[in-house]
Design goal:
Shape of chain A: globular
Strand order of the largest sheet of chain A: 1-2
Number of domains of chain B: 2
Strand content of chain B: 5-15%
Radius of gyration of chain B: 23 Å
Largest interface: A-B, 112 and 87 residues
Distance between the termini of chain A: 28 Å
Number of domains of chain A: 1
Largest sheet of chain B: 3 strands, antiparallel
Helix content of chain B: 40-55%
Number of strands of chain A: 4
Number of strands of chain B: 5
Oligomer: heterodimer
Radius of gyration of chain A: 23 Å
Number of helices of chain A: 20
Helix content of chain A: 55-70%
């Protein structure tokens, strides 16, 4: 590790926190309908759709509206991917996707996962990328933020039924938050070298073709919306997708900016900024600790390669780009997995065992550090409720959060949401570890092979999308099971969370008393961190010991596979 | 049912039209007008021929050229994705290090994209003697050219020091 490496990391994280303050305030204004520079377009959407943006929805209606949009989005995207061969904007004349791959990819983009069992430049027409994948990047991100706002309103008000209007939230977040940011970031990326053209590619002297396309706009929203799906197969490691130190920093910022900003939106909307800062603090603690571990492991390098003659000062450069270096590759791995983004600027499969353990563990902790846009906030709320419940048990008082009593119904629903992901990840991984149809997909032998399986199902159920990419994902078995894991990981959390929101909204908000447990100071930050680590992480320890930890000791002993 | 389906279909259709066609097509037009070079892949044109891109490594065969980093895949355009305990990876690293000591790590490993346009200054320096002797030039002259093509960190701490192989080879010219 070097001082310059840490200076880069500190600079980026400071930038994220500094911009989170104004962004958080702005998102609250958008959520409350106080931003309206595209009012005619906005009301046009409402009028055509026949919705009244002022009409509040109860939690069931809110969930149904969200599911209706997502289901329609899945069907349209599936059809588009299957039919791309016959549609315009397909200059490379690519065929339609297989049913398995189209199923997997459509789920992947509707659930904000962006798991990619294909390579963009060889599989997707420009129309599929632009009007299919990128549109879902916007809508799945707006969906996540809308759900987080609904839960926030439930906590902010007392004795109400309505959580807001899903359609109004969707339209406002898309038009006033995601679209302007994507346009701005996209144009900065073009200026730095990310292509934006409708041509299929450039033919070089000698006949070689460099694939090109409308990449910059899609890369911008893939980062801002914590989607992560690359325009090109190797994602933000591709020099066209992430060409310079500036694009690397801009994209890292875009991965983390909105998830952190939303915690401050939360604080503002519940009328106590300290509550938002406490959540930010927990998230930042994990990001810094994870970065320190991953950076240390990658900077130390691979002992076998060093013994083969590599300069020990250079660290592990396999799968990394020279322009990004070790420090920002490690930070990116942490940001992209902590934030449920899933884009990569280096290949996680080639990280050292402990360097690769960190991103995998961050996904398994529930994608709440800071988590995806919106999904991170409503995800960490589940842990918050469990934290105040545990604190309540310790002192023998009814647990409260923001003056609302947390009772059996909320705790049961929270536990349901917490248990879905481990069940899904460990269940599917266990089956895959013995099933020949799944084992055929594994590239590496030894413990690393298990890590590839475990990472894949963690990534799918966590709606992350990054991979230990040596795994062959485009098989009927993998496409189907990973698709199911993505569905469960998204909706089996959203529905309980919205049910919690419905039940909390109806409760009165009692003022603080001398006996209230403060949910802002360092004590609560420590408690919440512990709950996330224990409830979110403990189930995965045995599997992690069989995968990355076993591989670490094998590497120390000089064993290869 | 209809009061649920109608908004879902209208929102999906409307946003597909807006965010999937109108905005990106308009964005493409503006990008093409403002930044035609980068929007089209930062292509390098020499005497009317497209010889490469500033951003993509292109291997030039022969001792007289600086070589970019190894590509992980056989096709030459991807990462290896091999794990840290992979025997195949160790074998490849050993072959590239060729029994020497303190080899720059980027000289013996494959990049993440397989297209990494850069090498580290140490990796470039390691190739100077070979390139100079193949061209019958004094090594100091080649090293000076490498130094001129070494990009520094932005503001002294952002990014990594690096040498663009494509640009360096073009500056060297045909042997």
């Amino acid at each position: 590790m070097t001082l310059i490496g840490w200076a880069q990391i500190a600079f980026l994280l400071t930038l994220v926190l500094a911009t989170a303050v104004p962004l958080g305030r702005y998102i609250a204004a958008v959520a409350e309908g106080r931003v309206g520079f595209l009012r005619p377009l906005e009301t046009g959407f409402y009028r055509t759709a026949g919705v009244d943006p002022a009409q509040g929805m109860g939690w069931q209606r809110y969930v149904l509206a969200m599911l209706a949009l997502n289901a329609a989005g899945f069907l349209l995207l599936y059809a588009l991917l299957r039919a791309q061969a016959w549609l315009p904007l397909n200059p490379a004349e690519l065929p339609g996707l297989s049913p398995w791959l189209a199923f997997n990819t459509a789920i992947s983009f509707v659930t904000n996962t962006n798991w990619q069992a294909y390579s963009g430049e060889t599989a997707m027409s420009h129309l599929s990328q632009m009007a299919g994948l990128a549109v879902q990047n916007f809508l799945s991100a707006a969906t996540g933020i809308a759900l987080a706002l609904a839960l926030t309103r439930a906590l902010a008000a007392g004795g109400v039924q309505a959580l807001g209007n899903f359609w109004a939230d969707l339209v406002r977040i898309t038009l006033y938050l995601l679209l302007p940011l994507a346009l701005l970031l996209g144009m900065l990326l073009v200026a730095q070298g990310v292509p934006q053209t409708l041509s299929a590619g450039a033919t070089l002297e000698g006949g070689e073709v460099l694939p090109l396309g409308p990449a910059a706009f899609q890369v911008a929203i893939k980062q801002l919306g914590t989607n992560g799906g690359g325009f090109f197969g190797v994602n933000s490691a591709h020099p066209f997708e992430n060409p310079t130190a500036i694009t690397n920093l801009l994209q890292l910022w875009a991965i983390l900016a909105l998830p952190f900003a939303l915690t401050l939106t939360f604080g503002r909307m519940v009328g106590d900024m300290r509550q938002g800062w406490a959540l930010s603090a927990v998230m930042m603690l994990f990001v810094i600790a994870g970065t320190a571990l991953a950076y240390a492991a990658e900077a130390a390098g691979n002992p076998l390669h060093i013994a083969a003659g590599l300069n020990p000062a250079d660290g592990n450069m396999e799968g990394k780009e020279v322009r990004h270096g070790i420090a920002l590759s490690a930070l990116w791995a942490v940001a992209t997995t902590g934030a449920s983004n899933g884009s990569v600027n280096a290949m996680h499969d080639s990280f050292t065992p402990l360097g690769g353990l960190v991103p995998m563990f961050l996904i398994q902790l529930g994608e709440v550090l800071p988590g995806g846009v919106g999904s991170g906030l409503y995800g960490i709320m589940v842990f918050v409720l469990l934290a105040v419940f545990v604190a309540g048990l310790m002192v023998g008082r009814t647990p409260e959060y923001l003056g609302k009593k947390i009772q059996a119904r909320e705790v049961k629903l929270a536990m349901l949401a917490v248990l879905v992901v481990p069940l899904c990840v460990l269940g599917f991984s266990a089956v895959a570890a013995v099933l020949p149809a799944a084992l055929a997909s594994v590239q590496d032998a030894g413990p690393h092979g298990l890590s590839e399986i475990l990472y894949a199902y963690s990534s799918a159920a966590g709606n992350n999308g990054s991979a230990f990419a040596g795994l062959t994902a485009d098989t009927p078995y993998m496409n189907t099971t990973l698709g199911i894991a993505m569905l469960l990981g998204r909706y089996a959390i959203i529905v309980p969370v919205l049910a919690i929101a419905g039940s909390l909204a109806a409760k009165p908000r009692a003022p603080d008393s001398a006996g209230s447990f403060p949910t802002h100071g360092p004590l609560f930050v420590g408690l919440l961190s512990g709950i996330i680590l224990i409830l979110g992480g403990l189930q995965f320890l045995p599997a992690l010991f069989l995968g990355p930890v076993a591989e670490h000791f094998a590497l120390m002993a000089g064993q290869t596979f | 049912m209809w009061n649920l389906l109608r908004p879902a279909l209208v929102m999906l259709g409307g946003f597909t039209l807006l965010l999937g066609l109108i905005v990106p097509l308009g964005f493409t037009g503006v990008a093409q007008a403002l930044f035609p070079h980068t929007a089209n892949g930062s292509l390098i044109v020499r005497e009317g021929r497209v010889v490469g891109s500033d951003l993509i490594a292109r291997r030039m065969e022969g001792a007289a050229w600086f070589q970019p980093r190894a590509s992980g895949s056989v096709a030459g355009d991807g990462p290896s994705n091999l794990g840290p305990t992979s025997a195949a990876l160790l074998e490849a690293v050993r072959a590239r290090a060729d029994g020497q000591r303190d080899v720059p790590a980027d000289a013996a490993t494959a990049s993440g994209s397989g297209l990494d346009p850069h090498i580290s200054p140490a990796h470039a320096a390691r190739q100077v003697a070979r390139v100079a002797s193949a061209r019958g030039l004094p090594p100091a002259q080649v090293q000076a050219l490498v130094d001129r093509h070494t990009e520094r960190r932005l503001l002294g701490f952002l990014g990594e020091p690096r040498v663009n192989v494509q640009r360096l080879n073009l500056a060297l010219g045909a042997p």
